[in-house]
Amino acid sequence: MSTDTAFRLKEMLLADLRRGRWQPGERLPAERQMMEDFQVGRSTVRRVLTQMKEMGLITQSVGSGTYLAPDALERLAQTAPAADAMLPTLGTSPAELMDARIAFEPALVEMTIRNANSTDFSIMEQCLNKAEDATSFEEFEHWDGALHAAIAEATHNSFVLTVFRLMHEVRERAEWGQLKRKSLTPERRLAYQQEHRVLVDALRERDASLARKAIIEHLTHVKRNLFHPESME
Length: 233
Hints:
The chain has 233 residues and is mainly alpha-helical. It is built from 13 helices and two strands, in the order αααββαααααααααα. α1 crosses α3 (42-54) and α8 packs antiparallel against α12. It has a two-stranded antiparallel ribbon. It has helices at residues 2-18, 31-38, 42-54, 72-78, 83-86, 94-104, 109-115, 118-133, 137-153, 158-171, 174-183, 186-204, 208-227; strands at 58-61, 65-68.
């Protein structure tokens, strides 16, 4: 499980870099903050930071902290998956992504309910809290995606995670971000937060019927807002 946790933390930090959450030379959160934010141990944080340092993405100074390297963005571009690995998602539109999510994510409900443990639910709760406390679009989008990733992780099924990561690649593209930013009003953000709470509560209560209904309604709501942002709610 520690390997999965380290992988998830690394992927989330790399996604934040791609979204421009930190600029070259900017200080990253302290280890203790990452431990609290991602509900992981110090050894996991240090392992991931060591990997990122070896990639040339960060620099570390004893007593000062961890900083994004001056050429981190250029180096990050070089870490993109090889062309063959990207083929499954090339040409996938945001509309296709949403259709796939509506088909795929509700199907995970039974597996999540069967396999999720207390740590998984603790991570979900952390994602909910962080999303609700977010002060920027980028921060909210990060924790929104993190929640859905945490639900997929809670299946403890490697094939499910492979499929979910392919979908996450599409979500990380600029086209998705532009649509989401354009459609996300304060009222819609509040609605998404409430829908997320209903979903996680249903999963925690092991209520498959309610959880499936909640995820379908949430994703349908997101799809409508993305592609028909002028619609009345």
